[in-house]
Every structure is written in C-alpha cells, then in structure tokens.
Specification:
510 residues; alpha/beta; Rossmann fold; 2 domains; 12 strands; disordered C terminus; binds adenosine-5'-diphosphate; binds magnesium ion
C-alpha cells in the first residue's frame, strides 16, 4: 500500500470529538501484513446513531468486535443493549485474561491493554435462562404491534383493535396471552354474543382466526414473554455512579431456536424506546447503542410486516439518539431497506468455498466505496480479528476503506462463570427482591392457570356450539394501550430522561 493511502486513512479517521478506537491500519501482502499503530481507525461517537453492520464468516471476530465496541461505549458513559445469542458476551462483566497473544495484538495496534470488567446487567426473555426476566404486558404491546407479529391482515388487525377496545371499556387488564385469549373466547361464546354485537365490526369468524393465531403463537413459546413485571425501557438507559454506561445483556442461548420470540421482543423494545425517548436530533454521543449478534436469526422467515417495522423504526430512532448495530455473517442476511441505513461497516473475512459464497462476496464488494484494495482478494484473506472498515466521519461522509487489525477486548473473551453470573443477577437493583415497579394492575398472579380476566368474564356454558355470525363491517381500531399506559417514572418529558444509578454491589461506586 502506498504512503499516500496510509496518509489518507490517517487523516480520514482523525476525529476532534469523542470516538471509539477500533484498531490500526494494516498494509502489505496478505502473507506478510504490517500493522501501523500510528494509523488509528476510529469511529466517532457522534455518528453511531447512523447505525452499523458487523459482518463476516463464523470465527472471524465479529463478536469480539462487538465486545470491544461495547467496552468503549460503556467507558464513554454510553449505555449499551446487546442480544447475546450464544452466551459468549457475558464475559464483558469480568476482567480478561492476559496472554502473549493479547499483548502482541495490543502492541501491533497501539493499544494500552489493561484487564477490565464492565458494569453489566443480565436479562432473560421471560425468565428462560439466566437473567432478570424481560416481559411486556399485552396492553402495552398493543393491537398494532401484536397484529404485525401475528401476521394479521387489515380486517383482522382492526378486529383485534376492537377486542382491545372492549377489554379497555370493561376494565379488563390484558396482561398476558391467556387474558387476551379469554376475552376473544368470551366474545365468540354464546354468553358473549350480545357484547360482540354491541362492538359492531368484529365477526365471530375473524375472532376465530385471531384466536387460532394466538394459540399458534403460544405454541411457539411466546407465553413467557408476556406478563408482569414489565420491563421499563429506562432500565436500559442507566449509567453507573462512576460515569460508565451500563451494558444490558439479553441472554438468549435458551431461546435460540425460537426466533419468533425474540423478534417479537425486539420489535416491542424498539417501539417502546422510540415512544419513550425524546427527540434529540444529532448528538455528540448516543443515548443508547443496540447490538444484535447473530442478526440473521431475526430476519430468517420474518414476515414482510416485521421487516417493514424494523426498517421504519431503525430510520426513525436515529433522531432519538439511538444507534443500532446488526452483527451477522453476510450483509445479505439483512433486508435491503435496513442495510441501506447502516452507515458504519466492519467487514470481517468472508469465505469463498462455494458458488453461493462467491456470489455473496461479489455482492459485498459492490457495497463498499471505491478504494485501492482488491477487496475480493482481501476479504477472503483477512486474518482473525481483522476487518475491512468504512464508517462515517464526523462530517457524515464515508471514511476511506481501511484494512484494520482490531483491538483486543479488555474483558473476558469467554463466557462469565455461571456462579459469578448468578451473583451479578442476585445483586441487581431489578432483581425479584427489590423490584419496585409493577405496571398495569398491582396484584400478582396467584396461580399460573387462573387468569383474572377469565374470572371476571361470564362463564361459558360447556358443550354448546357458538353460532357463527359473519359481519364484514368493521371500524378503525383504536389502540388504548399507548395513551393509557402507566406514566413512565423515569421519563420526564422531552429532553429529560433521568438515568438511575447502578447500585449493584459489583459495581464501583464513587
Ligand atoms: N479483536 C480480537 N482480539 C483478540 N482475539 C480475537 C479478536 N477477534 C477475534 N479473536 C479471536 O477469534 C475467536 C473468534 O472470534 P469471534 O468474535 O467469536 O468470532 P465470530 O463471532 O465471528 O464467530 C475469538 O475467540 C478470539 O480468540
Ligand atoms: Mg459470534
């Protein structure tokens, strides 16, 4: 590589504001590469809300890149949320193990390496696996989002809106899927006939379709995700007393085979954040950065509605100061409408074993700005923990394409010990013993089988068939959930998001 090219990279990545250091530029033949610690490849914190993609074949260093980004964000006081699909990111909470390799890498890239653990909080989806259970109530989820997840058509969607409206009018709290099923079941029973008629616009046929899709959704394991206590998105925006941002790790290994569950969750979480956070426009550093490791799991078999929703949310959430990074094997795993919005790119090595690989490689090369590299050749010969990087500069223009050796994470590159993880969970201010907040109704469920909604509905007579009434007339649905939700105590209107201090024993306090 020419000196001019190195100079162009040096000046292209120079920043005046806060930035994270990804690594150092590399030059030479792929058989004898030289890293240049004096040519730093950095990512300005001010462009993180322009989102990003970390891609590459398995074992090339994507997750470690995510780890070192999360570490530097936390250090800069930026809270991080990450979906830890394989459980290999829990190590963020423990100091890394020094090694010859790590010292070598640090020296190569001009990094002062120091073992360090970071403030972490572990969450699980509805209590599956290790972590504080993350849940949402059906009411808060709302009919629109639920319809999208269920893949309902327009008529069914407006009908579901009427069901919510009915529950709202009757003061029936819809906490979990069972509650919602009970209401739909009631409306399709003989006892509910009058109510159904009164609602005008909900046919029993449509109600039947909704009921069946709710049952199928439960069968996919979605039940555990709905209910109380509900996650308060402000819990994800915490900084510690020492100023570091909290890293919220959603531990998903236990539900890896249930993509419908976490895609549902993601959709709600993004929508909820979007709703709760004030507009901030462009900021010096983001309010929160989201990382989705193994993001292909999100989009595999996703409905068009889901993809549209993600695309729209990713576009709009930018002005709320939230950055979203997708981490996946190939850029082709991410739908075009989402990919087009990802301004920052870290591309690890790709394989070119099969014709399909070749095609993916060519497609990836095409998405990069022009450069002196033979990217097809470079991308297939990158070392582990090396990447081809292009991000947005502080002025918002793409930086020169740079072959980069990445820094080494300072926290543990292996999963945290289970016992230690349990300690962190037990010490959490969100743990069951200290959980302060119950949205919706203040009572807990005494039995997992008895739904309070069921108890408050007239009993259906056993063994009678419901008469079917087909009515295609329907009204526009109103969503009662958003406007009537319990005010979020941590969000005090525009520009004023309060951050609660981390108070876990394991975190350093001033
Ligand atoms: N930046 C890095 N610093 C140090 N080691 C790394 C780095 N990137 C990758 N490695 C090594 O490569 C292995 C695989 O990296 P990983 O991030 O898990 O790959 P991927 O997520 O792409 O499958 C790690 O366990 C680690 O040993
Ligand atoms: Mg990985």
């Amino acid at each position: 590589m020419s000196t001019e090219q190195l100079d162009a990279i040096r000046s292209g990545y120079a920043t005046t504001g806060a930035a994270m250091h990804l690594g150092a530029a590399v030059s030479g033949a792929s058989t004898s590469p030289t890293a240049h610690p004096d040519v730093q490849v950095s990512l300005p914190l001010s462009v993180l809300n322009r989102h990003g993609l970390v891609a590459g074949a398995t074992g090339t260093g994507k997750t470690k890149t995510l780890q070192l980004m999360a570490e530097q964000l936390s250090t800069a006081g930026v809270p991080v949320f990450l979906a830890d699909m394989k459980g290999d990111l829990s190590g963020l909470g423990a100091p890394g193990a020094p090694s010859e390799r790590t010292s070598q890498r640090a020296a190569d890239v001009g990094q002062t390496w120091e073992a360090a653990g970071f403030p972490v909080e572990f969450f699980s989806l509805g209590g599956r696996g290790s972590g504080i259970p993350m849940r949402a109530t059906i009411t808060d989820f709302g009919p629109m989002l639920l319809s999208k997840v269920l893949g309902l058509n327009a008529i069914q969607t407006s009908s579901l809106g009427l069901v919510f409206h009915y529950a709202d009018k009757r003061g029936l709290p819809l906490l979990d899927l069972k509650d919602l099923r009970a209401v739909v079941q009631h409306l399709t029973s003989d006892e509910g006939k009058a109510d159904l008629k009164e609602l005008g616009g909900l046919s029993s046929a449509t109600a039947g379709v909704i009921l069946r899709s709710l049952i199928a959704f439960s069968d996919q394991g979605a039940d555990v995700f709905f209910g109380e206590p509900e996650l308060d998105t402000a819990d994800l925006l915490r900084t510690c007393e020492d100023g570091r941002g909290l890293i919220s790790c959603l531990e998903l290994p236990a539900v890896q085979d249930r993509p419908a569950m976490f895609s549902t969750f993601l959709m709600w979480l993004l929508a909820d954040l979007f709703q709760d956070l004030p507009e901030v426009g462009d900021v010096d550093k983001p309010k929160l950065v989201f990382f989705f490791d193994e993001a292909h799991l999100l989009f595999d078999d996703a409905s068009k509605e889901f993809v549209d929703q993600i695309e729209q949310t990713v576009r709009l959430i930018r002005s709320k100061g939230v950055g979203v990074f997708f981490v996946t094997q190939s850029p082709r795993d991410v739908p075009a409408g989402v990919l087009g919005q990802l301004g920052n790119r870290v591309q690890h090595a790709l394989r070119a074993f099969t014709p399909e690989d070749e095609k993916a490689l060519r497609a990836t090369v095409k998405t990069f700005p022009k450069s002196e590299y033979d990217l097809g050749e470079l991308l297939t010969s990158l070392g582990i923990g090396e990447a081809v990087v292009t991000v947005l500069s502080e002025r918002g223009v793409p930086t020169p394409v740079a072959w980069t050796r990445m820094r080494a994470p300072q926290s543990l590159m292996a999963p945290m010990e289970e016992a230690r993880m349990q300690e962190v969970i037990a010490a959490s201010p969100l743990g069951p013993s200290t959980r302060r907040r119950w949205t919706g109704s203040p009572r807990t469920r005494s039995s997992p089988h008895a739904s309070p909604v069921q108890a408050r509905l007239p009993r259906a007579a056993p063994g009678r068939r419901h008469p079917r009434r087909i009515d295609l007339h329907h009204k526009a649905a109103r969503s009662p959930s958003r406007s009537r939700r319990t005010p979020n105590p941590a969000v005090n209107g525009p520009g004023n998001v309060r951050t609660r201090a981390c108070s876990s024993r394991s975190w350093r306090t001033r």
